[in-house]
Specification:
InterPro entries: EF-hand-dom_pair, EF_Hand_1_Ca_BS, EF_hand_dom. The protein is mainly alpha-helical and 148 residues long. Helices cover 51% and strands 5% of the residues.
């Protein structure tokens, strides 16, 4: 269980609500409330993966994720790093770690990001709007409330 929570932290960081490693468009994207394309979401996930993969071996180990969760790679946790609160947890890791090796490959990290993007993109036009993002967040809150 101790390995699962740090892995979940990285997944949360790469989803639509986070991954603030993107600096290309400071007036757009989830940090500013603008729309986000599928390609932007994937690019943000890749930048976050690169930031978290400190040993550059192509996987996110429990040690790398624990370090990122406690202080972030080389400093404070990255913006958008939401921790293991709502939206995180072992269920999220179980879905993302498809080969069940306790670490995340880039492919697993990207697949998890794109699955969440696609679930949030209600009209399937390849762009998540602020309204779609709010609706998805409300739906997740309702699901969590029903499960408690």
């Amino acid at each position: 269980m101790r390995k699962k929570i740090p892995l979940t932290l990285a997944l949360c960081a790469a989803t639509l609500g986070g991954a603030a490693a993107a600096h290309a468009a400071p007036d757009a994207g989830p940090q500013r409330g603008g729309p986000v394309s599928r390609a932007e979401s994937l690019a943000r996930a890749d930048r976050m993966f690169d930031m978290l993969d400190t040993d550059r071996d192509g996987t996110l180990s429990p040690a790398e994720l624990a370090a990122a969760a406690s202080r972030g790679p080389g400093g404070p946790p990255p913006a958008g790093f939401r921790g293991s609160g709502p939206g995180g947890g072992p269920d999220m890791l179980a879905k993302a770690d498809s080969n069940k090796d306790g670490a995340l490959s880039r492919a697993e990290f990207e697949a998890s990001t794109l699955a969440r993007f696609d679930a949030t993109d209600a009209n399937h036009d390849g762009t998540v709007t602020p309204d779609e993002r709010r609706a998805a967040m409300e739906e997740r809150r309702a699901e969590r409330a029903a499960g408690e």
